[in-house]
Amino acid sequence: MLPRYVLLDLETTGGNPVHDRITEVAAVRFEDGREVARWSRLLNPGQRIPGFIQQLTGITDAMVADAPSFGAVLPELLDLLDGAVLVAHNVRFDHGFLKNAAAREGVDLRVKTLCTVRLARRLYPAAQGHGLDAIMRRHGLQTLARHRAMGDVDVLRAWLDVVRHELGATRLEAAAGELLRASASVPPRLETPLESIPTGPGVYLFYGQGPIPLYIGKSVRLRARVQAHFQADHREPREMRIAQELRRVEWRETAGEFGALLLEARLVKNLQPLLNRQLRRERNLCAWRLADDPRERPLLELVRGDALHPAEFSRLYGTYRSKRQALDALRELAEAQALCPQALGLESGKGRCFAHQLGRCKGVCCGEESPQRHHLRLQMALAAQRLQAWPYGGPIGLREWDAVGARSEVHVFDQWCHLGTARDAEELDTVLHARRAEARAQAFDLDTYRLLLGRLRDGKSAGLELLRFGTVAAERGEALAD
Questions:
Q1: C-alpha 12: how far from its chain's center?
Q2: What is the tens place of the pLDDT at every residue in 160-192?
Q3: Where are the domains of the chain?
């Protein structure tokens, strides 16, 4: 198949190459079509083997109790792999575990890899399923040691012999060589050709077998970013899972990075991909509302949900992901600025507060500081956290061009809400007139607010053209955008 290659299989305590460990490794080395070495070891993983793994593989804690560690056998394994291509069924799994295990011993494992799942897909494109069990059923292969390392290696060797008999050695060698040249870093079950993915900006969606995306991301160079995911599977558990489950890639092109950021945030909230943690919809988002009257108690009220409306932003401070986070931040602020926890609503009771007794409050609670002065100090302490009121008299647009100026998009906003993105005059008219009422009913979105605020403050450096659709922009809006 190849001049020098090693058929290899591992058994492990689980599927995470960072946290789980190897319990068994088996490898057979071939040179010029002949077997020249056969090697197999049970390994002590240094952690318990889960019960279901013991049932699957038959490898128990007792069997590996006196076995060597991976570090002890690493020199033998490196000798076996020297100058050869590592060949395995779903090679990303085995390579990821070997790479991490070697790194823990201070060794940077560098070896070319070839995946027999991808090889099977290329040689038998009409077949259903290319897992080891499916291959065994299809070709009538049997083993008494399934899910043991050497047993699975022998199944792979038998399958390669079947391929040579059915399709010929020349075709097998050609397919293996093409895959090796094309890079074995592509996930074995990926059906989407990488060359079909655009090279410009946009959002990509990774799908497994189900309808819910595994992951959604954005980039100004879509194809390069997608390929970059496949280079890190041995380092990140998330990337390993993507590589194991990925079946197809979808994408949405945009004119530039800003459009990609907006689209990514919207798609993550709407589709709830399994592996995205950031940009999800904030169900417990809240902020502090400051009372106008310095004598009102408490001076701050926690505002949540629909009450977070841009019309109120001049009195709102935050925002926070939860009530607990808001209270913790307020306590820190009160202590740092010697504000009265009683006046802020952090402490019940009347008269001298406990903080004043400790010298940490200037005494608004007992008449030693005027309510007006305390209110002013609170305003100043909160100033950096105040939400920005919508600075325009109506909706605005931010026009974005692609790198060569061949296409543009206008992102339309009103009251910090993204009404939509238009690519021509007809779409722009629809966004401006049909969606404004709908937008007023939408909940405040912190990610959109931060993205837009950042671009407006950057002004011309953001590479976006500001379009005003409202009647008259407020003076503070002109200052913000210029």
A1: 25
A2: 999 999 999 999 999 998 888 765 467 878 888
A3: 4-182, 194-271, 286-385, 396-481
